[in-house]
Design a protein that fits this description.
5-stranded mixed beta sheet, 10 helices, 43% helix, alpha/beta
Amino acid sequence: MKPLGLISYLNSLTLRDGAAALGLDFVSDTPSEIAGRFEAGEFDFAQLSLSYFLEHEQGLVLHPNAALIASRGSIRSVLLFSQLELSEILRVSVTEQTVTSSQLLRVIFWERFGRDLDFSPRQGDDILDSCLLIGDQAFAQYKLYCAGFSEYLHCYDLVTLWTELTGLPFVFAVFAGRSGVPAPAQLSVWLELDFSAKTIQALDASEQEYLGLLDFVLTESATRAISTFRAKIGLLNEIRRK
């Protein structure tokens, strides 16, 4: 069995700890790197960003007991920091670690303001008027923002904006495998077990609170969230092509 591809952020820590406890071989990396390595054939099963899954879902199997990241309310790890009010933002620097969050931000701006955004790659620690951060980088910057040490005046949580727009959670990543590749028994056991209690006990209070805002099971509302995002990003891409 090839190693699993798992996201390296704090939000997937319980999944990585569970895999290690069962002796499953895995590789952890950023969402974009996991997708690229899955594309190259390094993994047969992996946590895949929602954008990658939707683009390639014809050749993928979404596992029923999917290890995914479904967010409830503000999770403080997919954040838009800015010197400007939300309605004034025109250009955003983005991390190359994810495509899904950039697409989510584009959908939010189309729905709220009827316009698209200009994106530019984030260069190291360069400070621009607006910056989209995800994962551990966002979590660290949020702590600075709350302590009054951030260079940004405003912080916008994309999950909160999405939930206000749709009434749904947002699914950032799903656990999927290649069509035609059977899931080994040990993998099925891993998908059905909950290792979160032991992992969370070793974290500080803010990290425990953060993980408590996440889901790892494909609920009915998460399924509707995937369908809603698929429709909205598809419509937006169609508009852009005209």
